[in-house]
């Protein structure tokens, strides 16, 4: 009976462009077909449609995959057939997940629950209805998208926590990838935390992945920037009485606004796919990842260049999936400073794209590249330079920032360079 449903849907799809589009929009994917010949024909139909813009005829299918048994006298709606196949797939996958997780529930309940949680999300994503192609005939949805952007809190794009930077770039759009580069202890983590704070204040939901520092260290940074108290004193538990009141009030306010997701994924869960999937699970508007050197490619690579290139490509693809776009900010290490930079001389504040480790792989995928740097004197004065090194939608620009962490915690523009 179930295979009859598959044959009937395939019979309807062949030679009908509209029904192919409708089936894909409703969530029908190759995985829902249990019958191998049906799955093969479905893949052929979709591939032909995507390549040529038209539906294949039965002659094409019979030529490529001879012997397929077409259904006769199909008298049911294709939408009903599609929904039956999706339901069957969901039930079967759900049962398989339970069978996989239950045996280990007593010994490792957290692992079993993680298996169920991640597996259920993956199954749902596979058959979630969504648009996969556009002929731009749906004018209303494009106009609605325009209005939605103009009504966003704080502007069209998502803020990065530096108003002058956001004004110049128009904000970070869903599906865009931002890379922030700096030397070790150069401010990359604080930049990401400052962006997360700005996002939450503007009503957006950020998720911060810390792959190097502990969650507690990131929480201290968030608390300091949110409340404005001295990070140096907070990290040593030496806040003044007045700061302690601001610190606690800030924590209460942040909690009331929904908090900020901070997670430290285990080894094996640090691929671009795993991180962005998790960001979507919590309905985050932006994923902030600290940092590239601690991410995983998910497969073997011959060298660090290929490793970084693979991660950047995966990340670019994951965040820009149609209908599921999510903005992302990634911290990345700059190449080791030369003698002049290491000494804190004038060259230390000069950063260009080629200073990124494996710069070509990064430049190829990013929409915005930012560099943070300072001379020795600027470091002593609590200032840094922010350079836009690359922008797809805007020109390069630089600012001198007040990078206050001693007596207060605040990051703001002092002047344009």
List the main descriptive attributes of the protein structure presented here.
single chain, 417 residues, alpha/beta, nine-stranded mixed sheet, 17 helices, 9 strands, 47% helix, 13% strand, elongated
How would you characterize this protein structure?
The chain has 417 residues and is α/β, with parallel strands linked by helices. It contains 17 helices and 9 strands. The chain has helices at 2-13, 17-25, 36-52, 58-64, 78-101, 109-126, 139-150, 163-169, 188-201, 215-227, 231-235, 241-256, 272-281, 304-319, 339-342, 359-365, 376-381, and strands at residues 177-182, 206-210, 261-263, 286-290, 327-333, 368-373, 383-391, 398-404, 410-416. Strands 3-2-4-5-1-6-7-8-9 form a 9-stranded mixed sheet, with helices on both faces. The chain is elongated and about 80 Å long. The mean pLDDT is 89.
Task: Produce the secondary structure layout.
Layout: H1 2-13, H2 17-25, H3 36-52, H4 58-64, H5 78-101, H6 109-126, H7 139-150, H8 163-169, E1 177-182, H9 188-201, E2 206-210, H10 215-227, H11 231-235, H12 241-256, E3 261-263, H13 272-281, E4 286-290, H14 304-319, E5 327-333, H15 339-342, H16 359-365, E6 368-373, H17 376-381, E7 383-391, E8 398-404, E9 410-416
Parallel strand pairs: 1-5, 1-6, 2-3, 2-4, 4-5
Antiparallel strand pairs: 6-7, 7-8, 8-9
Helix pairs in contact: 1-3, 1-5, 5-6, 9-10, 10-12, 13-14, 14-16
């Amino acid at each position: 009976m179930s295979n009859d449903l598959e044959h009937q849907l395939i019979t309807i799809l062949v030679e009908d462009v509209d029904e192919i589009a409708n089936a894909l929009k409703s969530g029908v994917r190759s995985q829902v077909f249990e019958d191998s010949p049906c799955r093969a024909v479905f893949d052929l139909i979709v591939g032909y449609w995507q390549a040529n813009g038209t539906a294949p005829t039965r002659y094409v299918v019979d030529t490529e995959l001879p012997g397929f048994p077409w259904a006769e006298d199909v008298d049911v709606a294709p939408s009903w057939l599609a929904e039956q196949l999706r339901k069957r797939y969901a039930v079967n996958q759900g049962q398989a997940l339970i069978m996989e997780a239950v045996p280990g529930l007593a010994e490792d309940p957290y692992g079993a629950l993680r298996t169920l949680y991640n597996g259920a999300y993956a199954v749902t994503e596979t058959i979630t209805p969504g648009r996969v192609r556009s002929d731009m005939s749906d004018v209303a949805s494009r106009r609605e998208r325009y209005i939605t952007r103009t009504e966003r809190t704080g502007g069209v794009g998502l803020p990065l926590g530096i108003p002058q930077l956001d004004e110049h770039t128009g904000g970070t759009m869903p599906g865009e990838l931002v890379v922030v580069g700096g030397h070790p202890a150069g401010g990359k983590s604080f930049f990401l935390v400052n962006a997360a704070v700005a996002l939450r204040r503007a009503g957006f939901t950020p998720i911060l992945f810390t792959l190097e520092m502990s969650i507690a260290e990131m929480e201290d940074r968030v608390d300091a920037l949110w409340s404005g108290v001295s990070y140096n004193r907070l990290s040593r538990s030496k806040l003044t009485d007045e700061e302690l009141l601001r610190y606690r009030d800030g924590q209460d306010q942040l909690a009331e606004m929904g908090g900020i997701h901070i997670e430290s994924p285990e080894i094996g869960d640090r691929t671009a796919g795993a991180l962005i999937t998790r960001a979507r699970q919590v309905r985050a508007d932006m994923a902030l990842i600290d940092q590239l050197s601690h991410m995983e490619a998910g497969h073997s690579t011959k060298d660090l260049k290929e490793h970084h290139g693979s991660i950047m490509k995966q990340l670019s693809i994951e965040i820009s999936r149609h209908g599921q776009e999510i903005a992302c900010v990634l911290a990345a290490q700059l190449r080791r400073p030369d003698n002049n930079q290491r000494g804190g001389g004038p060259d230390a504040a000069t950063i260009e794209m080629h200073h990124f480790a494996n710069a070509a792989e990064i430049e190829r995928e990013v929409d915005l590249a930012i560099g943070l740097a300072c001379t020795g004197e600027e470091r002593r004065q609590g200032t840094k330079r922010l350079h836009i090194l690359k922008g797809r939608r805007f020109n390069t620009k630089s600012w001198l920032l007040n990078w206050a962490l001693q007596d207060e915690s605040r990051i703001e523009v002092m002047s344009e360079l």
